[in-house]
Amino acid sequence: MFLIIGLCSIVTILLVACSSSRSGDSTTTTGTTQNAVHMNDSNFIQSSITIKKGGSVTLIDDDLTTPHIIANGTWKNEIPTAAKEPGAPAVKDIQINANSSGSIGPFTTAGTFKFYCTIHTDMNLTVIVQ
Fold it and tell me: Which of 124, 121, 113, 115 is nearest to 44 (CA)?
């Protein structure tokens, strides 16, 4: 009986120690950075992200073969529309090759900013800066 209680206490201590050591990490469990947006072969995995003023967004292409070209603007009704909102960082044809990453920012102005992949229809990202 005492052996079981002692073993349960050790397991509980180990679980608490393992979980608390990750609580202050600035990275996710997959090793990516904060404010990361992942991309697959033809889309952003998430279509929007909210970040703090002064932050940047890291775009990560998880696909092994497909590059993306990112710019200010959006796809509307399957038509690419280049546009830069006031205060948005200028992004013109940033190429993010397969299985690599790139950064947009810093965002120094609060607001809502639109970005798109110029080669993949309807691949839009909204960055909300607070």
Answer: 124
CB of 117 closer than 8 Å to CB of 66: no
- C-alpha to C-alpha distances, 71 to 10, 30, 74, 121, nearest whole angstrom: 53, 27, 8, 13
Nearest Cα to 120, choosing from 84, 73, 67, 64? 67
Residue ranges covered by each domain of the chain = 27-129
Element (H, E) at 12: helix 2-20
Q: What is the pTM of this model?
A: 0.74
Rounded distance between C-alpha atoms, residue 23 and residue 35, angstroms: 17
DSSP character at residue 41 = S
* CATH 3.40.50.720 at 27-129, yes or no: no
What pLDDT digit, counting tens, does each position of 92-101 carry? Answer: 999 999 889 9
Residues 39-77 pLDDT 10s: 999 999 999 999 999 999 999 999 989 999 999 999 999
Average pLDDT over every residue of 18-40: 54
